Automatic annotation (TrEMBL):
<dbReference type="GO" id="GO:0004674">
    <property type="term" value="F:protein serine/threonine kinase activity"/>
</dbReference>
<protein>
    <submittedName>
        <fullName>ATP-binding protein</fullName>
    </submittedName>
</protein>
<keyword id="KW-0418">Kinase</keyword>
<keyword id="KW-0723">Serine/threonine-protein kinase</keyword>
<keyword id="KW-0067">ATP-binding</keyword>
<dbReference type="InterPro" id="IPR036890">
    <property type="entry name" value="HATPase_C_sf"/>
</dbReference>
<keyword id="KW-0808">Transferase</keyword>
<dbReference type="GO" id="GO:0005524">
    <property type="term" value="F:ATP binding"/>
</dbReference>
<feature type="domain" description="Histidine kinase/HSP90-like ATPase">
    <location>
        <begin position="13"/>
        <end position="115"/>
    </location>
</feature>
<dbReference type="Pfam" id="PF13581">
    <property type="entry name" value="HATPase_c_2"/>
</dbReference>
<dbReference type="InterPro" id="IPR003594">
    <property type="entry name" value="HATPase_dom"/>
</dbReference>
<keyword id="KW-0547">Nucleotide-binding</keyword>
<dbReference type="InterPro" id="IPR050267">
    <property type="entry name" value="Anti-sigma-factor_SerPK"/>
</dbReference>
Length: 123
């Protein structure tokens, strides 16, 4: 059976810290402490990307299966990278370094950035 927390609607940067804490606390109950720290950082970066590049906020969903914790961050943006911006662009590099699996998909509905971290046996 998959576990999850209710999807979180992030409409402004002011809502990011509470959402980040809620997701980190949930993650700590199903993955190692180190992995929960990584989840907190990655979800913060993903929410920031959605708020900066998306339109109308973001919807964050967390799903836990027997093998992994998956976070999905959806927004209504076009899912493109702004070339030449030196003040942006580190978020995906952080996610790439920490997540065993991740991807960003864009279609006519917007963008979905997701990442997964593995669960350890016994957690």
């Amino acid at each position: 059976m998959d576990l999850a927390i209710a999807p979180l609607q992030i409409t402004s940067a002011a809502k990011v810290p509470a959402a980040r804490r809620k997701i980190r606390n949930f993650a700590a109950s199903v993955v190692s402490a180190d992995a929960a720290d990584d989840v907190e950082l990655m979800v913060s970066e993903a929410m920031a990307n959605a708020l900066i590049h998306g339109l109308g906020g973001a919807l964050v969903t967390v799903i836990v299966t027997e093998k992994a914790l998956r976070v999905e961050v959806r927004d209504h943006g076009p899912g493109f990278i702004i070339a030449g911006r030196v003040d942006h662009g580190r978020g995906l590099a952080i996610i790439n370094a920490l997540a065993p699996r991740w991807k960003s998909d864009a279609d006519e509905r917007g963008t979905c950035l997701w990442f997964e971290v593995d669960r350890e046996v016994g957690l």
